[in-house]
Amino acid sequence: MLLTGLWALPMLTAPLVWAAPSRRAARLLALAASSAVLLYSIWLWGPFSAEEGLLRLHESGAPGAYGLRYHLAVDGVSLSLCWLTAFLSLVSIVATWSDERPNAYWAAFLALEAALMGVFLMQNLFWFYVFWDAALIPMFFIIGLWGSGNRRRAAFKFILYTFVGGLTLLLGLVGLVALHHQATGAWTWEIPELTRATASGPWAPYVFLAIAAGFAVKVPVFPLHNWLPDAHTEAPAAGSVMLAGAMLKMGVYGLMRILVPAFPALSAAALPWAAGLGVASILYGALCAMAQKDLKRLIAFTSVSHMGFCIVGIFSLTPEGLSGAALQMINHGLSTGGLFLLVGFLYERAHARGLDDFGGLAQSAPWFAFFFAFVMLSSIGLPGLNGFVGEALSLYGLLRASPPLAAAASLGAVLAAAYGLPSFQRVFWAPPGPASRSPLVRDLTFREQAVLWTLAVPIVGLGLFPKPLLDLVAPAVQSLAQR
User: Fold this and answer.
1) 76-93 pLDDT, tens per residue?
2) How far is it, in rounded angstroms, from Cα 318 to Cα 342?
């Protein structure tokens, strides 16, 4: 039962948090549960390393009808995503500790953490999809109940896009099971079995497209990204951290875990189109970010751009590109999560997010300026920080597969500097705007600095020493590249 605890602990704690006698008790219980999940996920590295094989720490029940059963296991990619989810959940709770939110707010974050853990752990397609859809519910309420401005519109837009994408995914997953049954005569929903056998037949391309579309909505890939900027803009800061840092990784993980290994030939045939959409996401997201006046909306479009590097890395179908995609998922979660936290801290003080609302904050809030510059440089891929390694590996993998597409994708690094550095300059060094003169714009508190330092450590660590994480994901990457 080693892996069950990763999703069961936050799921069982969520109703206790909701029913807590006071808001302080709810926050303390949520903090204790998220801390326990993080420490437990780190401890699992020991049992994980002691086993051999691609998938390890298996937990499974007796097979049911049509091959349905409870089956958990992890490889290096899924274990690293569990670490990221647990880490960002704890960071989100600590960062918003002073918020006077109702008990249900903290319970929703624990429920979201549990659902995300289930997605990264489940090795049975049925349960994978159950947790996939379950993750939509707490995020819908986080945006719709505790967001800002047009939160209800953003929440319904989020649920409409992602639920329809989920239904498309479900049709594709059922089709994959049917294709396997047609070829073998056996019913199974087991992901390892379905991905060991190449799906084929006249319906295979349609099943491939359905699964690809379902995952692409969650990434999100251009032009299926329209829900993301509104969701990020209206979500509370902690909600944006979990949405960008962990939830978007569901789509990339699904591509790596299910789509590409189940359809290796079709994935290779789709390389120009899929990688081309990844390049379009990189360039379109960066260009849209350059045009934004709202800080949260700017960072939201950078997510579209950065996740494009994951797509080009995966569909390069090379070990380097796949390693870059796996690393970029972690790097994006840390860097973009940090940026959303900083904008959230700024909004709490001035109740403004416009680039023209600020200016001159480097003098009045030097720690704000330091951390914003640091995380922004990480996000745009400065060598020595985490963002550089994942993007460089993804581009190198794509260069091996398609040099013209790699040349186009590399423009994303240039455009990243074009939107990142001017936004920092306008907020912290330009002449003061109306919000900069507000007495509410004070420097970061000790708690806020502590949270950002905890993000800074892995940002520097992965930038200078990415090998441990690359070694962790190497078996899964090599297996996928061989397919």
Assistant:
1) 999 999 999 999 999 999
2) 36
